[in-house]
Amino acid sequence: MKKTTLITLLLLLLFVQSKAQTVTGRIVDSEKQSVVMATIALQTLDSINICATTADVDGRFVLTADSIPLPFRLIVSSIGYETVMPECASYAVGDVVLATKTNVLGDVVIKSKRPMLNVQGDRIVADASSIIKSRIVTCAFDVAKYVPGILCKNDNELSLAGTMSTTVLVNGKVWNGGSVLEYLKTLPAEKVAKVELLYNASPDMHVTGAVINVVLKDNKGRELTGQLKSSYLNNHHNTFQESGSLFYTTPKWSLYSMYTFADAKSISRSQYLSHHTVGDQVYDIDVDTRTHNSSLTHTVYTNATYNVS
């Protein structure tokens, strides 16, 4: 009886394990050289995210999930390379080729360096210190936008490659102090410990879908830091924006205050031309509208956090 039970349990275990499906492949550049630590996300053709991982030192990757329907889509990205999204009809993908992305300044070609990434459970983690050392960054927003797999649009939007929408969190929580991206732009880069990428949010985050989680460093002592930022834009009119932020941290308390001043002016013009025939008479209609807008904005935000642990 015991032998029968043991055999049954072993067969059941083998059956459960056999249900897991695995996708394998290798990430290479145009010269067939391995692309180390590229991020690979797998989703269905209707954009449902299933799992994600990173390539090893040989560029190879393994994606495992309980169910991976064929065909499926991979979203492959690495800093310094163009993001690709091949559709695959086999679990053995083979080589995925990334084209090098370069920024040309005159006769100088600048190629980006890759920050260190690793997979920790259900998330891909980027070490902020590696990004700060290899890129010119001034704020937490800059750190996040240079993480492989994160797309930055118009320097005002962050999203995970291949996703319809992405929630940006700070320390695993929704930021309630207005725009989280504006907060990250006033937060010094040195405050960031790591950036986590999740194609499916964990339950403790209380959000659904894809997540970019910016994790800040622990407060190990008393520290007072601040940052000033100014911008100027001329597009028919002058537009100015100045902001300042102040941070005071202790092992228990974290105090944050931000002030932003914006003096914006803009001009727009629209012209409408039409021809209307009434009977034998043709009427020409010409409407020319010019609009001048001016706004003066002051924003003040203060936040205090106490660690009870």
From TrEMBL:
Transmembrane segments: none annotated. This is TonB-dependent receptor plug domain-containing protein. The keyword Signal applies. InterPro entries: CarboxyPept-like_regulatory. Keywords: Signal. It comes from the Bacteria. It comes from Leyella stercorea DSM 18206. Residues 1-20 form the signal peptide. SUPFAM superfamilies: Carboxypeptidase regulatory domain-like (SSF49464), Porins (SSF56935).
